[in-house]
Specification:
Layout (H helix, E strand, L loop, with lengths): L1 H44 L5 H81 L1
Amino acid sequence: MSNFHSELTPKQRELLKIRRDSDTKAAELVKMEKMLQQTKDLLDRKTESCSDSMDLQENMVEDLEEKLRSSRRHRRSSLHHTQLLESQMKTVKGELVGTLDHLQELRNVLRRSQQKAEERKAAMEKLAAGLR
């Protein structure tokens, strides 16, 4: 049974880590979206800037947009992985419950067998004592 527990614990830890990573990425997305909006607002206000600075800012915006897309892809992937792990955890828990039920049944059968064996032993000893 401790073997099942040791298998569940790493998976639970991995699931928690993925959830934390997903939350972190979501916070990063919000931050990046805010930065992107600020950069776009800045670009709108600076219509008289020289073309070099405009190119630089446009590159910054493009970089931020790509980072945002990448973060969204990573978040979707993390969410999918989390769902997959949760599904696997449900399966493992179901199997563990079935195994535990089966072990309890086997323990009950063993107890009954031991009890019957003790009763037979006592009867044999009684018979042996009666034959002496």
